[in-house]
Specification:
Blueprint: H1 2-7, H2 24-34, H3 51-59
Length: 66
């Protein structure tokens, strides 16, 4: 309901849907943050398990949704 209220304000809004498979990096960080007791974290290097996700993104690999 809050999103609908924001969309009806006097401004231009554009939305773009992104399937979960196309946003693996954000999903990985969200899961990692959810398991943490900290309210925020600063990463000084890419977590090892995220390297493959970012490499696929840079190479333009597209994942087909079943």
């Amino acid at each position: 309901m809050a999103i609908k209220n924001l969309l009806h304000k006097n401004w231009v809004v554009s939305l773009r849907h992104n399937f979960r498979e196309g946003n693996d990096a954000a999903g990985y960080l969200a899961k990692k943050g959810d398991m943490s007791d900290n309210s925020h974290a600063i990463l000084y290097e890419v977590p090892p398990n995220m390297v493959a996700v970012l490499l696929a993104y840079v190479m333009g690999v597209e994942f087909v949704r079943p």
